[in-house]
Amino acid sequence: MILGGPGFPLSAREELNKVLSGSCPSARRMDLLTFDNVAIGYRRGQPLLPPISFAVASGDLVGILGPNGAGKSTFLRTLLGLLPPLQGKVRYPGGHEPRMGYVPQNAQFDYAYPLSVLEVVLMARSSQLGLFRRPGKEDVEIAKRELQAVGLQSISGQPFRSLSGGQQQRVLVARALTGEPELLVLDEPTSNMDPAAEHALLSMVSSLTATRNVAVVFVTHEISAAAEFARTVVLLDGAKKFFALGPAREIVTSETMSALYGRPVEVRRENGRVFVWLSANGSGGASP
Amino acid sequence: MTFWEARFLWEEPMLAAVLASAMLGYLGFFVVLRRIAFMSAALSQVSGLGVASAFLAGSYAGITPHSETPLWLNPSLWALVFACLGAAAMGLPARSRRVTPESAVALAYLAASAFVLLVLANPRIAQEAHEIGDLLFGNAVVVRRQDLWNLGFTGLLVLLVHGLLFRSFLFASFDSDTARVSGVPVRGVELVLHLSLAVAVAAATRALGALPVFSFLVLPAGAALLFSERLRIVLLLSVLIAVFSGAGGYALSWALSLPTGSVMVALGVGMWGVAGLKRLVEIRLGRES
Question: Under 8 Å CB-to-CB from A103, ≥6 apart: which residues?
Fold first, then answer.
């Protein structure tokens, strides 16, 4: 496990190291993608975090937590190959780049496009069809099957822009799955959802790791969602030059969350559920 | 002489208007949705600069204005090369975090406009100033046979390229990050899209002038997007509205003795007005989506 870096406040770093000591996840076969001392960021010489070593294997379920502006999106973009690392290597132990599915935040879309739900979902078949071929019957069937998996088959003909934020998010998940990914990356997939829809989507996504052996990496602001659904959790904060990962049960605690967010945060586990709240009296852990 | 009896006069310009408007009406779908409307205006200016530069270069090479021009000094070829270079250059800011695409387009537009005037001010090509002026401000009344062939060839090229790559153009335009993750070479695809736009603008500007070309790229697609939410219908309507503006504008300008380019634009604006009215009624009736 890697903790902290030169810019991370000593007290918080020590606090986190103390809390996390001995919680390093057991070694896995890194068969999809590895970061070997990768520095992420946009400007050479100004990496956002200390060099990161990190691996994603088939069937992994990784949640990423961090405050606003922590560099979560930069981390995801590097993972997706959209941003080259400033230093270090991204390796593909399988010998090829894994087929990736990406669920972006739906706020980034331009709703002027006159596209139906099915047309949006079919876009992801590009990885199978290449540049020139058009989607055929089989592609349409796969797209409809994935729409059914997210409970939206009945609205496949509707304009994408006419859907609610939560429905659009589910369409984007169906689109990512239509590309038959080996690695599914989701950027705040539940940001527009009510709690029931959020739970249903994360349950469905987490089941993919077992049913399809897909690796899933998701960014969330919901600490409880990461703690409940992810098996491994990554904590990062570019401002504090801090990066850590570990099993969800061990790394998502009141102490680590308080140190990460700079506010007293309480984390409690009861009957398999995780409850998180901001503590008013500051008893939650390290202060800024 | 009736309009029909005079068809030997208008057959070729009318055909040019139909070909150009259909091609540009379709391309306008991407122009409007990618928010690059002013790129087409800038490309018209850049291709006009290409024409002016060809005349200037010809004057230095000892070519008289109305003698046969060698291929390497052909104004259409220069317009095409300038437009392609301009399209590629205007795509560069997408890779920069400091230069916005709008400012790059504005820079190209202003630079091309200024340089055209500077080139035209050169006494060596004073005789061509009128022809280049027609190119920039629109004169679809007379179209040369060569320009018609160029338009037909360009239309076929655009049809072929977009027939093969339409899906990738759409994906890269709608969601470029996910397109890249899905294996679409977005930068290459966008460059091809911009080059197809540049080729079409260069050929159509030479035949019809800058004003109608700009209007065919913006008004029909804008109106079609107000009329429908279905991709295929929007594409079809965009082409039909453009052809209506082009052919109808030509016929109307003939009948009413009005400037051709301006009447084409006025019809396009009218169609946008009708589409906007329809949308307004829908919103009032609560069918908003």
Answer: A169, A172, A173, A175, A176, A184, A185, A186, A187, A189
- Tell me which chain B residues have a C-beta less than 8 angstroms from the C-beta of A134: 167
Chain B CB contacts of A109 under 8 Å are: 174-175
As a whole number of angstroms, the distance between CA A152 and CA A168 comes to 10
Neighbouring C-beta atoms of residue A60, cutoff 10 Å:
23
Instruction: Count Cβ–Cβ pairs < 8 Å, chain A vs chain B.
Output: 84
Whole-number Cα distances in Å, B125 to A213, B62, B71, B132: 71, 12, 19, 10
Query: Domains of chain B (ranges plus CATH)?
Result: 7-280 (1.10.3470.10)
Instruction: Please tell me which residue of chain B has the smallest CA distance to A178.
Output: B182
Q: Which amino acid is at B201?
A: V
pLDDT tens for B180-217 read 999 999 999 999 999 999 999 989 988 888 889 999 99
- Is the distance from CB of A261 to CB of A238 less than 8 angstroms? no
Whether B170 has its CB under 8 Å from any CB of chain A: the answer is: yes
Q: What is the ipTM of this complex?
A: 0.85
Average pLDDT over residues B251-256: 89
Strand, helix or coil for residue A40:
coil
The Cα–Cα gap between B91 and B197 comes to 12
Q: Which of A106, A126, A142 to mutate to test the interface with B (most CBs of B within 10 A)?
A: A126
pLDDT one-digit tens code per residue, A30-80: 579 999 999 999 888 788 888 999 899 999 999 999 998 889 989 999 999
Q: Distance, in angstroms, between A24 CA and closest chain B CA?
A: 31
**A178/A159 Cα distance (integer angstroms):** 18
CA atoms within 13 A on the CB side of A231: 16
Put simply, whether A283 touches B (Cβ < 8 Å) is no
Provide the residue type at B149 as one letter: W
* Nearest residue, CB atoms, A126 vs list B183, B233, B289: B183
Give dist(CA B280, CA B289) in Å, integer: 12
d(CA A152, CA B248): 45
Question: Averaged over A102-106, what is the pLDDT?
Answer: 86
Per-residue pLDDT, averaged over B29-44, amounts to: 91
Nearest CA-CA distance, residue B191 and chain A, Å: 14
Domains and CATH numbers, chain A: 1-98+182-248 (3.40.50.300), 108-180 (no CATH)
Looking only at the bridges linking them, the beta strands covering A33-39 and A52-56 are antiparallel
- Rounded Cα distance between A44 and B32, Å, is 36
The answer to whether B229 contacts A109, with C-beta atoms less than 8 Å apart, is no
Model confidence over B121-160: pLDDT tens digits? 888 877 767 766 666 655 666 778 888 999 999 999 999 9
Residue of B nearest to A77 (CA): B177
